[in-house]
Amino acid sequence: MSKGKSKLPEYEFVDVVQLQNRVFDLEQNFAEKDLIIGKHDIQISELEKLKSYKDSKISELKANIGGLTARFFDLKQSLFQKFGDEFQPLSAEGEKIIASSSGLADPTSQSSSERAARPAPDPNLDTFLSSASFSAR
């Protein structure tokens, strides 16, 4: 008798066909479970690729929103420089926002801590904004 393995008692009749069928069933079950594991591995891989793609898109969109914000502030400053007190943007509630004209017309008069840091222009954003698909929306 080998150690650690159970052995069928010698006095019982063993049906070889039953044992072969049982082995076949177990092998079939193993193959099915192996196939399921393979399918799950493929799904995991696809989900990881999708997550990576979405993460890169999120980063790209964050960069684009930074560029849009900078353009908004540049436009706002240009309008204020051009129209002065006539240009008074509305708040979310529809009330006029009172802007002080001291120092805003001349950005060089602002200290470096008062000037907003603006990201470099983004060529992808320029392409997107000028594309027909954007204007069709």
From TrEMBL:
| Disordered as annotated region, ranges | 98-137
UniProt lists compositionally biased (Polar residues) regions at 99-114, 127-137
Task: Indicate what this protein is called per its UniProt record.
Answer: Uncharacterized protein
